[in-house]
Specification:
The protein is mostly beta strands. About 0% of the residues lie in helices and about 45% in strands.
């Protein structure tokens, strides 16, 4: 018995050549999938990028909101060819921003923080941190939530050349108390580490699923 061109049965043996199964790895070409059609569910990663600061000529300004104490400081990094705004973080300093979680948000949120070692440091470690807190957008909650315990991102060990650009990552940051459709406050910080100079935070990449 031959069923189409992909499934054949000879005696009691089934030839599954070319048949997709739940555990198989397949590449589909010229196929359409309507994620909004009845019974179809598609989960896709979405990436957003948030710079920490900007520069007007050599005048730096923060893009993130700064707290009333232990705040990071905006600075300009002026190169021969580029001008870049950064927030500089000493141990224990922080800055905040926020996004709105989409109504179909699901699953984990991952982050990647891009930074440069501060000053002339050529040794030591930098440990960025990220904490979240969420507020419902239905008039039921004051927009002043308590942050979850901060997650430490991967430790960066500075190399022998100063001012190199690094990335520090964390898969599945803590989002306790957060739900789809809410404001998610994000606090970036720096844990106690061993690099002497402030670290220059350039950008945060956020990956969420919807």
């Amino acid at each position: 018995i031959t069923l189409g061109t992909h499934l054949a049965m000879t005696g009691t043996t089934v030839d599954t050549t070319g048949v997709s199964t739940p555990s198989s790895s397949d590449t589909f070409t010229n196929k359409g999938l309507d994620c909004e059609d009845t019974g179809n569910t598609c989960t896709v990663p979405v990436k957003i990028f948030i710079p920490f600061a900007g520069c007007n000529n050599t005048t730096a300004g923060p893009v993130w909101d700064l707290p009333t104490s232990s705040a990071a400081t905006a600075a300009c990094v002026t190169g021969t060819n580029t001008q870049k705004g950064v927030l500089t973080f000493a141990d224990g300093q922080s800055a905040q921003t926020y996004i709105v979680l989409p109504s179909d948000w699901t699953g984990a949120i991952d982050v990647k923080l891009v930074l440069a070692g501060g000053g002339s440091d050529t040794s030591g470690t930098v440990i960025p941190t990220i904490a979240t807190a969420c507020t419902a957008i239905d008039g039921s909650t004051t927009d002043d939530p308590t942050f979850n315990t901060a997650d430490s991102l991967s430790t960066i060990t500075l190399a022998t050349a100063a001012n190199r650009v690094w990335s520090s990552t964390k898969t599945a940051i803590t989002t306790t108390g957060c739900s789809a459709g809410q404001i998610m406050h994000i606090k970036a910080g720096r844990a106690t580490d061993t690099a002497a100079s402030p670290a220059r935070y350039i950008m945060l990449e956020i990956t969420y699923r919807r």
